[in-house]
Design goal:
Layout: H1 2-18, E1 27-30, E2 34-36, E3 41-42, E4 44-48, E5 52-54, E6 57-58, E7 62-65, E8 69-71, E9 76-77, E10 81-84, E11 88-90, E12 95-96, E13 100-103, H2 107-145, H3 147-154, H4 161-184, H5 188-215, H6 226-241, H7 246-272
Parallel strand pairs: 1-4, 2-5, 3-6, 4-7, 5-8, 6-9, 7-10, 8-11, 9-12, 10-13
Helix pairs in contact: 2-3, 2-5, 2-6, 4-5, 4-7, 5-6, 5-7, 6-7
C-alpha cells in the first residue's frame, strides 16, 4: 500500500515537471513561466521568479514577483494585480477590473531603495552615537572633575525644578530673540554659531546635574561613586528622550533646566564677585 502511494506521488510530480505551463487548478504557485490558456478560468495566480501569461479568466488576484505579467487580448482579470520586479504588458482588449500595483526593480528603483536604506541606517547610527555621547559625557565630566564637579552639583542638591524651568524658559526666549536678530546680518552668524556651541555645553552641564539627581534616588546607588549615579540618571533621561512624542517634551524640559542651572550659577558667581 505504501509503495503504491509512493509510486503515485512520483508520477504526479513527474507530470507537474513535464507540463509546468498549463493551468487547470484553482490556484497556481510556479517558479517558471506560467500560462492561463484562453478559455480556462482560475481563482488566483501566484508566480515567483518567472513570467505570467494570462490568456483566460482569473477570478481572483494575480501576484508576480521578479517577473513580468503579459495579459493577452482574451484575458479577463477580476481581482487585484501586484507585480514586483517586473512590468505589466496589457494587450488591447484585455480586461482589468481591479487595481494594478507595479513596483519595478530597475536601476533607478534599486538606487532609490539603497539610498533610502542607507539614510535610515545612517540616521540610526547618528541617533545611537548621540545617545551614547549623552550617557558617557556627563559620566566623564563627573569622573574627571571629581571634587569640582561634585561641589557644583551639591549647589543644586535641593533644587526647585519649577524655578529652574522658569529661569530656563526666560533665558531661552532671550536667546531666541537674540538669534533672530543675528540671523539678519551676515556678521552675526559667527556669533550665532558660538551661541549654539554654548548651548550644547550648557545642555551637557545641566544634564550632568539632572542625571546625578535622578541617579541618587535609587537605593542601590547610594554607595556607588558619583560618576556611576550620573551615568544611571543619564541612561534614564536618554531612554525617555528616545520615546516618540514624549521624547521631545523630555528633551525640551532638560534643555530648559540646563539653562536654568547655568543662569543660577552665573548669578551666584556674580554675587560673590
Amino acid at each position: 500500500m505504501k509503495r503504491g502511494v509512493y509510486l503515485l506521488s512520483c508520477i504526479l510530480l513527474l507530470c507537474l515537471l513535464i507540463i509546468p505551463t498549463q493551468v487547470s487548478a484553482a490556484s497556481i504557485f510556479e517558479h517558471q513561466r506560467t500560462v492561463v490558456p484562453a478559455g480556462e478560468a482560475v481563482d488566483d495566480v501566484y508566480v515567483i521568479g518567472g513570467d505570467a501569461e494570462i490568456q483566460g479568466h482569473v477570478k481572483g488576484i494575480i501576484v508576480v514577483i521578479n517577473g513580468d505579467l503579459h495579459a493577452e487580448n482574451t484575458a479577463k482579470i477580476d481581482g487585484m494585480i501586484v507585480v514586483v520586479g517586473g512590468k505589466v504588458d496589457q494587450a488591447p482588449g484585455a480586461v482589468f477590473r481591479d487595481d494594478v500595483y507595479n513596483l519595478s526593480l530597475d536601476g533607478q528603483t534599486q538606487n532609490s531603495l539603497l539610498l533610502s536604506g542607507g539614510l535610515i541606517i545612517g540616521l540610526w547610527v547618528v541617533q545611537l552615537g548621540a545617545a551614547l555621547l549623552l550617557v558617557l559625557l556627563p559620566a566623564l565630566i563627573s569622573l574627571i572633575g571629581m571634587k569640582k564637579t561634585q561641589a557644583f552639583i551639591d549647589r543644586f542638591s535641593q533644587p526647585s525644578w519649577g524655578r529652574l524651568l522658569y529661569m530656563g524658559f526666560l533665558s531661552g526666549m532671550v536667546l531666541i530673540a537674540i538669534s533672530a536678530l543675528l540671523l539678519i546680518t551676515i556678521i552675526g552668524i559667527p556669533i550665532l554659531i558660538l551661541i549654539i556651541l554654548l548651548l550644547i555645553v550648557t545642555f551637557i552641564i545641566g544634564l550632568t546635574v539632572t542625571s546625578h539627581r535622578i541617579g541618587e534616588q535609587f537605593r542601590s546607588t547610594s554607595h556607588k561613586p558619583d560618576w556611576f549615579k550620573v551615568m544611571i540618571g543619564a541612561m534614564i533621561i536618554v531612554a525617555a528622550i528616545n520615546v516618540p512624542f514624549l521624547g521631545w517634551v523630555v528633551l525640551l524640559m532638560t534643555l530648559l533646566i540646563s539653562l536654568g542651572v547655568c543662569v543660577e550659577w552665573l548669578a551666584f558667581k556674580r554675587k560673590r564677585v
